[in-house]
Amino acid sequence: MSESSSADLLSFTKLGESNYPTWEYDMRAALQVKKLWRLTSGNESKPSSPPEKVELWEEKAEQAAGLIYQKLKHGMQILVQKYMDDPIKMWGELEKMQHQDNPASRFIAYDQFFSITKKEDESLTALTARVEDALHKMRNSRNSALTLKDFEDELAAVALVRALPMEYSSFRSALLLVTNFDFKTVKDAFLQEQNIGFI
User: Fold this and answer.
1) Which is an annotated Pfam family here (predicted)?
2) Range with the lowest mean pLDDT among 15-19, 62-66, 91-95?
3) Which of 29, 115, 130, 147 is the most buried (most CB within 10 A)?
4) What percentage of the chain carries pLDDT values higher than 70?
5) What is residue 15's three-state secondary structure?
6) Range name among 49-58, 94-103, 149-158 with the lowest pLDDT average
7) In sequence order, what are the residues at sequence separation of 6 or more whose Cβ sits closer than 8 angstroms to the Cβ of residue 186?
């Protein structure tokens, strides 16, 4: 593969807090083209011998981990730095983060759902499939004990956080760590942040 076509292969958007579904498919495809997906998915076990095969497997693992790390935004890189030599654990950790039952994972699922727009060359059938996939992820992110009022409060909180411009990225990240991610909590945090600005 030429240098330019290798760069094209990795030209997709880095993984941030709200683009996991599209990133996952793009990253998997890139790893498949580079013949590193079987190793990353855990289907290609590390051989115990001969030494040449062990060395080759370790080189492929380093390459896979490096490619994944390069396609993560800084905030996501920090979360997987301890797995820099293990693309299997790195991939698993990124996947696990998307399926946790906490306010941050629900925010990501809601944000992904409401951020969907038709791509220029995308068919209506493909768009519908993406919406169904995002809806499935949104439903899976919600705790079954969540009431309609809780859901509405979370949606209002999501609307507030999504409305923040880029210069509030640190504040936005901090909000996703709160235990009770609801409208009142986020509203109070907004007021506190505004008051700090006036000091």
Assistant:
1) Retrotran_gag_2
2) 15-19
3) 130
4) 90
5) strand
6) 94-103
7) 156, 157, 160, 161, 175, 178
